[in-house]
Design goal:
Low-confidence stretches of chain B: none
Order of helices and strands of chain B: EHEEHEHHHEHEE
Number of domains of chain B: 1
Largest interface: A-B, 31 and 39 residues
Radius of gyration of chain B: 16 Å
Helix content of chain A: over 70%
Structural class of chain A: mainly alpha
Order of helices and strands of chain A: HHHHHHHHHH
Shape of chain A: elongated
Shape of chain B: globular
Distance between the termini of chain A: 32 Å
Number of strands of chain A: 0
Strand order of the largest sheet of chain B: 4-5-6-1-7
Oligomer: heterodimer
Number of helices of chain B: 6
Helix content of chain B: 25-40%
Structural class of chain B: alpha/beta
Number of domains of chain A: 1
Low-confidence stretches of chain A: none
Largest sheet of chain B: 5 strands, parallel
Mean pLDDT of chain B: 92
Strand content of chain A: under 5%
Radius of gyration of chain A: 19 Å
Amino acid sequence: MSRVTDAPGLWSLAGRVLGRELTLAGRHWDQVAQPLLFYVIVVTLFPLAISPDLARLREIAPGVVWVAAMLSCLLALESLFRPDVEDGTMEQWVLSEQPLAWMLLMKTVAHWLVSGLPLVILSPLLGTGLGVPVSAWPVLMASLALGTAALSMLGAIGAALTVGVRRGNVLLALLVLPLEVPVLIFGARAVSLGMTGEAVAGPLNLLAAILVLAISLGPMAMAAAIRIGVES
Amino acid sequence: MSFSLPPGELLQLTGENGAGKTSLLRVVCGLLPAESGDILWRGVSIREGRDAYHRDLMYLAHLNALKLDLTADENLKAGVGLRRDTTRAEREGVLSDLGVARCADLPARVLSAGQRRRVAFARVLLSRAPLWILDEPTTNLDAGGVALIERLIREHLAAGGSVLTAAHHGLLAGHPSARQLALAA
């Protein structure tokens, strides 16, 4: 029997994986919206619990927005690879001739598009409630865009490593949080500098560097972890 | 243990539950590392020629690898899409060969276990892989479904394909190119 050689190229494969993931996300949007809802609830609770005084809220705004974003990202991670491993899809991915690392990267990109990007888009609205001035919106959004993407990549490595562990949520958090703390520090720092009108290039560049590092090395780590995960 | 699988032949692993049929299939697929020994495909160790081997291989596991929120057609499109392009007409043709043409636009969630198995088998057919590794392909299928799978396997063998399978009851009993290998627990 002749060999099948008309396998899709890298970009066409990327389109297929993204398309499938986004269709799936659209079919169970209630689950997809949960981390976003969590983010909105946490950020809006702070003014109620602390004080409606904008001057006081402004001091804690960068920290609140960033901690909520980070926890929301962590909440969304659990469902990144686990369903695919449990229903056998990941086995089929491992057994296809396609590069697993590339497919997992695309899956993580899709995950960021549905869990990270909405958070970036909503952030000016929520930031305003905490007294973030309009002049700091670009910094807020840029730091969250770079930061949530880095959080998704770092988190995906953790999700791939814990995919074989039953109820691995706690382990996942323990594994991922230390890696994510630098993102939190630089992200919140960028926002607080932006709110006082100072130069923000430093922390933003560092966030971008973390993101580039995570994108270039993360997928290989994920692929290795997933190959071990489907063995069990 | 040593066995070979020439083109056009079916090798069926038999044995009690827990005898290691699924584990052996997973080792042959390359999902599990072999503790010792080697597996060759077209004369090349599958550890060295992994991509070429996986291009020729289609594995149907216990799990159907279907996304319950996607329709049967979308599942096939995404599943086979990793290997090659398929047209809607092609996918519908295979689904109707398997007797599940009506399910094409239904989410896999509402299909019965037997219908899901048939859709998963449609992925094997669409892949056009010469080597099929089938783990209990007839699970949840009715008598008509079993006969259908046997006919499709016979056609695959006649076209020069090979099949390695694990099944409780004899598939293709009496077929000249079907062999059985019993695993002791």
